[in-house]
């Protein structure tokens, strides 16, 4: 995972002006777009070999990059994200998003048990994730 903390005054979204008024406006996330462009320009593997014919051992050389930045919403206090990627499909996505008041806004990808264990797991997850909010730096969290 790659973490990036930006000051609140940092420009978040830009609306691009489109000359054709019939087209909808186009808004981009400035930090994500900029970081993704830098990663693409400097860290893309341009010698990635992908097997296209197993019997003839034929490989195709292509560009490959598995690092992408996601847009973190400023409405939330904290975002914990883990994405494992393989062959342009996301295999597993886990994240926890906290509201500004410290409550969990969204929780995805963590195991939830049925029946009586459900409440116990929810309490445990809430207490574990709440600990991340106590730090002021990534190291403290």
From TrEMBL:
One of its GO terms (biological process) is nucleotide-excision repair, DNA gap filling. InterPro entries: DNA/RNA_pol_sf, DNA_pol_B_thumb, POL2, POL2_thumb. Gene3D superfamilies: DNA polymerase family B, C-terminal domain. One of its GO terms (cellular component) is epsilon DNA polymerase complex. It catalyses: DNA(n) + a 2'-deoxyribonucleoside 5'-triphosphate = DNA(n+1) + diphosphate. Its cofactor is [4Fe-4S] cluster. It is found in: Nucleus. Pfam families: POL2_thumb (PF22634). Keywords: 4Fe-4S, DNA replication, DNA-binding, DNA-directed DNA polymerase, Iron, Iron-sulfur, Metal-binding, Nucleotidyltransferase, Nucleus, Transferase, Zinc, Zinc-finger. Residues 116-141 form the DNA polymerase epsilon ,catalytic subunit A thumb domain. Its EC number is 2.7.7.7. PANTHER family: DNA POLYMERASE EPSILON CATALYTIC SUBUNIT A. Belongs to the DNA polymerase type-B family. DNA polymerase II participates in chromosomal DNA replication. This is DNA polymerase epsilon catalytic subunit. It comes from Rotaria sordida.
């Amino acid at each position: 995972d790659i973490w990036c903390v930006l000051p609140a005054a940092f420009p978040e979204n830009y609306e691009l002006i489109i000359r054709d008024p019939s087209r909808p406006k186009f808004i981009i996330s400035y930090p994500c777009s900029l970081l993704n462009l830098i990663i693409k320009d400097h860290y893309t593997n341009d010698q990635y070999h992908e097997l296209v014919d197993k019997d003839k051992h034929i490989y195709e050389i292509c560009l490959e990059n598995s690092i992408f930045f996601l847009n973190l919403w400023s409405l939330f206090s904290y975002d914990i994200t883990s994405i494992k990627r393989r062959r342009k499909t996301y295999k597993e996505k886990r994240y926890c998003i906290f509201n500004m008041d410290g409550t969990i806004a969204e929780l995805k990808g963590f195991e939830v048990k049925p029946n009586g264990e459900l409440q116990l797991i929810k309490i445990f997850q809430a207490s574990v994730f709440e600990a991340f909010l106590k730090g002021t730096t990534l190291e403290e969290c």
